[in-house]
Amino acid sequence: MNLTINTLTQHRTYRHFKTDHHLSSEQLNAIIDCARQAPSWINGQHYSIINITDSELRAKIAALQPNNPQLNTCSTLFIFLADLNRSRICSDACDGTFSSAGDPDSLIAAVTDTTLAAQNAATAAESLGYGTCFVGGIRLIAPHIVELLALPKYTFPLFGLCIGVPDTEMRIKPKLPKSAIYAENSYPDVAVQTQDLIEYEQTMSAFAEEREKLPFREKVARYYSQTYGPDNLPLLHKQGFLTLKF
Question: Tens digits of per-residue pLDDT, 60-69?
């Protein structure tokens, strides 16, 4: 097995980091360079990465996400933004209308580009021996992040990426079986998926991760039975996303 595949298959999320370690500038630049090399729609590179180096700012962000204290203890915290602002600059320079910025497809493209870049960054960090943790809760405090980071229109904070030296060992979490997520030429068979989910729930219950308080299917069902965090639709509109009316 080559080193890249080994790094990817050994991934696990760490939430506890040693607080006395700092990434070298060479390591930091290598991670950013790997993120920059990610594929993107029309090579537009519709993302930005904000490195939160100010300790007071980091503490403010962590205080807004008390369930994610790793935001304040990891060595490096990146905030990844979906970013169409540079596209606006290009449009202004070439007398474009920028009329499609509010289309759903533009948001999908920006989110996809951002996610691909972030995954590259995480894989690069893990290849250097660091632990990582994506923090999706950043979007639950998106209005605060927009204000704290003085984000311009046509940007939106999607998630954070914590990087550091793990302070505790974590087991590799079991994932859904291949048959639940992979098929050829048509959608995976629903009956197979249903049985896979039953068996996966049993696997996860046996895995007995401390932070998992509910059986897998019930956890998912509860999540999609309510709305979490603020309604980001008004903020998306304010930031220039999803502005079309149907």
Answer: 999 999 999 9
